[in-house]
């Protein structure tokens, strides 16, 4: 007697705000990393060099504003979005979510063959995203402090309290943290997508994942 075929159903998981913020933040991080590097290592001020650096700083400033807006909107969506965008989907507040985090860690460490799966973020990824958004806020604050350090307005007082070099170092190092997180993020997404076969990658474009019907009935808290 053949095994019963498990029926998969389409589930709408990621709302447009979540998807758009995700991709805007990705693009902004790369633009900010490139322009930030050029600001820290200026083009030699030969003919046209000063004009070029002015454009680089302008692009960096505008992109930083877009980045901050996307981060703020995603943080707001932690409280007004659907159950998969909610802050409870990032922080494992229930026993089921804590168990999911432990089982997912075992999967990442190759101690179990198949990912335990999750309709929204798995619990381990949720905690990583919560941490990375805290770092996003620190990056925004330090960037704005550096931008306003020669002004009496804004939050230039952070420079006076912590020191310009220290704030600049934190701002610089966090860029590398984000780039390293990007590499891990891409790896883990494809690893889970191949294990679960639930349309995880495609879901960040159209919002839909595919889950076994029985798992939806026993949905984690």
How would you describe what is shown here?
This protein has a single domain, classed as Up-down Bundle (Fumarate Reductase Cytochrome B subunit), CATH 1.20.950.20. Strands 1-2 form a two-stranded antiparallel ribbon. The two termini are 35 Å apart. 67% of the residues lie in helices and 5% in strands. α1 packs antiparallel against α2 (49-80), α1 (16-40) packs across α6 and α4 (123-147) packs antiparallel against α6. With 221 residues, the chain is mainly alpha-helical. The model has no long low-confidence stretch (mean pLDDT 86). The longest helix has 33 residues, at 164-196.
Q: What are the salient characteristics of this protein?
A:
221 residues; mainly alpha; Fumarate Reductase Cytochrome B subunit; two-stranded antiparallel ribbon; 5% strand
